[in-house]
């Protein structure tokens, strides 16, 4: 092999070294430490096998965190994609204010999650803006303690996450709309098709690539929930809104590094177990379309 051909391999060596050093080595080390009793006070780290995993599936807090993670993921996946698609469909028509409206809906996606957490912490208090508004329109019966109700808080956090990112997913669907030839709609109009018929028979099939991207991104972010929950409730009240990400943070803060690592890898495994088969399925559907 000549020097010219070897040149391309020389170029990837620095990136490969960084990848091995800062990704593969920590990953492999983390897999090992997830099967140990790794704590700062332990002078000798002992291999404990599946003891950490057994603890995860028997501890009430961790089981509740797993449940909350799936609740958060389902709500955010449905909310971001359904509302994002509806917004994109409504703002794909030629109206004078569509660019302004697109910007307004997209702005929350570029705001810091910390800012949103502080903002909604004030809005959703019992005496906050939202409950005040409900009382002013005669819906005081719906004014709840959104962030303190143990049964309600995880749903509240989920809807705030949807509010923040729905504009981002709207842009994904809008980009998909731009790739649809206008001739298809014009031909459908000549054939007498209505708006609903055009949406079902033209828009949805042609939006499959955009739907696939949006669905996968929302699923990965939903299963990796952390920032929205941590900034809004910190996992409270009484651990009612804890998700896997916040429990991992809590366990590392307590010094349970082995357990925290095991829980983190369980989260990665769940994401891979759900998203990889879904990716292949969606790609197949995309080709079929």
TrEMBL record:
**Which InterPro entries does this entry report, sorted A to Z?**
ABC_transporter_permease (IPR051393), MetI-like (IPR000515), MetI-like_sf (IPR035906)
Q: Where in the cell is it found?
A: Cell membrane
| Membrane topology of the entry | Multi-pass membrane protein
Keyword Signal assigned to the entry: answer is: no
What is one cellular component GO term in this UniProt entry?
Answer: plasma membrane
Protein name, per record: Raffinose/stachyose/melibiose transport system permease protein
Q: Which UniProt keywords apply?
A: Cell membrane, Membrane, Transmembrane, Transmembrane helix, Transport
Q: Where is the ABC transmembrane type-1 domain?
A: 66-278
In its UniProt record, which GO terms are filed under biological process? transmembrane transport
User: What Pfam family does this protein match (any one)?
Assistant: BPD_transp_1
The record, for PANTHER family, names:
ABC TRANSPORTER PERMEASE PROTEIN (PTHR30193), INNER MEMBRANE ABC TRANSPORTER PERMEASE PROTEIN YCJO (PTHR30193:SF37)
What is the organism field in this record?
A: Anaerobacterium chartisolvens
Q: Which Gene3D superfamilies match?
A: MetI-like
Q: Which residues cross the membrane?
A: 7-33, 70-91, 103-124, 152-174, 206-226, 262-282
Primary location group: membrane
Q: Provide the family line.
A: Belongs to the binding-protein-dependent transport system permease family.
């Amino acid at each position: 092999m000549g020097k010219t051909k070897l040149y391309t391999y020389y170029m990837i060596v620095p990136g490969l070294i960084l990848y091995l050093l800062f990704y593969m080595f920590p990953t492999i080390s983390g897999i090992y430490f997830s099967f140990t009793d790794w704590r700062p006070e332990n002078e000798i780290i002992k291999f404990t096998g599946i003891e950490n995993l057994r603890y995860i599936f028997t501890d009430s807090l961790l089981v509740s965190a797993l449940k909350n993670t799936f609740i958060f993921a389902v709500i955010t996946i449905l909310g971001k994609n359904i509302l994002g698609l509806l917004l994109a469909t409504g703002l794909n028509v030629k109206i004078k204010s569509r660019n302004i409206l697109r910007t307004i809906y997209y702005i929350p996606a570029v705001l810091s999650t910390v800012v949103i957490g502080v903002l909604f912490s004030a809005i959703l208090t019992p005496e906050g803006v939202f409950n005040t508004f409900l009382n002013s329109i005669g819906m005081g019966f719906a004014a709840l303690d959104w962030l303190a109700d143990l049964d309600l808080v995880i749903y509240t956090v989920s809807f705030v996450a949807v509010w923040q990112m729905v504009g981002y997913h709207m842009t994904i669907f809008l980009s998909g709309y731009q790739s649809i030839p206008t001739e298809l709609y014009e031909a459908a109009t000549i054939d007498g098709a209505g708006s609903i018929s055009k949406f079902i028979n033209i828009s949805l099939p042609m939006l499959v690539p955009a739907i696939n991207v949006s669905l996968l991104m929302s699923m990965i972010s939903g299963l990796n929930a952390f920032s929205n929950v941590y900034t809004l409730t910190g996992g409270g009240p009484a651990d009612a809104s804890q998700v896997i990400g916040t429990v991992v943070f809590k366990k590392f803060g307590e010094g349970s590094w082995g357990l925290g690592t095991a829980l983190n890898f369980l989260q990665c495994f769940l994401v891979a177990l759900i998203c990889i088969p879904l990716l292949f399925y969606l790609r197949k559907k995309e080709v079929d379309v």
